[in-house]
């Protein structure tokens, strides 16, 4: 398994496409930010499918971190995932 | 040194505050996303100062990753940092 953080920059009226897709794999932690642990196969699916969702002027960055233990997460201010698992 | 990714969720008319601050330390890679290598001292400064910039309904997440070598970054679509250094 690997730990990934996905951030995306899309037109406001199109973000639902990405939201509905990424929710199947990851936790929605902030406006255009998802994170979670996935298999390498899921990561490949996420890479390929996000590409099909983007218009030319939009982008996604996927940070693949070898393992959760390398990531330390600080939330400042309101945390929309209060009820979800933390790192 | 440590590698950090900072994402923030603020009202559109207030994001310039965060942008101008984080630019002193990090690379602006996407709409509300910065990343880069910083000292532990800088990280502490970033944690403390971002807290003062936020309104109650806004948030920042700081991912601290032990070293760049643990992070693999995939950009899909338009990369606003084309001219900058990649991981």
TrEMBL record, chains A, B:
List of residues binding Mg(2+): 9
EC number, as in UniProt: 3.1.-.-
Keywords: Antiviral defense, Endonuclease, Hydrolase, Magnesium, Metal-binding, Nuclease, Plasmid
One of the record's GO molecular function terms: hydrolase activity
InterPro entries xref list: CRISPR_associated_Cas2, Virulence_VapD/CRISPR_Cas2
Gene Ontology biological process terms from the UniProt entry: defense response to virus; maintenance of CRISPR repeat elements
Cofactor(s) the protein needs: Mg(2+)
Taxonomy, superkingdom: Archaea
Enzyme class, first EC level, given as a word: hydrolase
Family to which this protein belongs: Belongs to the CRISPR-associated endoribonuclease Cas2 protein family.
Assembly with partners or alone: Homodimer, forms a heterotetramer with a Cas1 homodimer.
Function: CRISPR (clustered regularly interspaced short palindromic repeat), is an adaptive immune system that provides protection against mobile genetic elements (viruses, transposable elements and conjugative plasmids). CRISPR clusters contain sequences complementary to antecedent mobile elements and target invading nucleic acids. CRISPR clusters are transcribed and processed into CRISPR RNA (crRNA). Functions as a ssRNA-specific endoribonuclease. Involved in the integration of spacer DNA into the CRISPR cassette.
Name of the protein in its database record: CRISPR-associated endoribonuclease Cas2
């Amino acid at each position: 398994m690997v730990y990934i953080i996905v951030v995306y920059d899309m037109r406001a009226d199109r973000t639902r496409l990405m939201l509905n897709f990424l929710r199947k794999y990851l936790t929605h932690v902030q406006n255009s930010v998802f994170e979670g642990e996935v298999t390498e196969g899921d990561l490949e699916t996420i890479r390929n499918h996000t590409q099909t969702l983007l218009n030319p002027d939009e982008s996604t960055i996927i940070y693949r971190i070898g393992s959760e233990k390398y990531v330390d997460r600080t939330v400042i201010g309101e945390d929309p995932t209060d009820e979800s698992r933390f790192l």
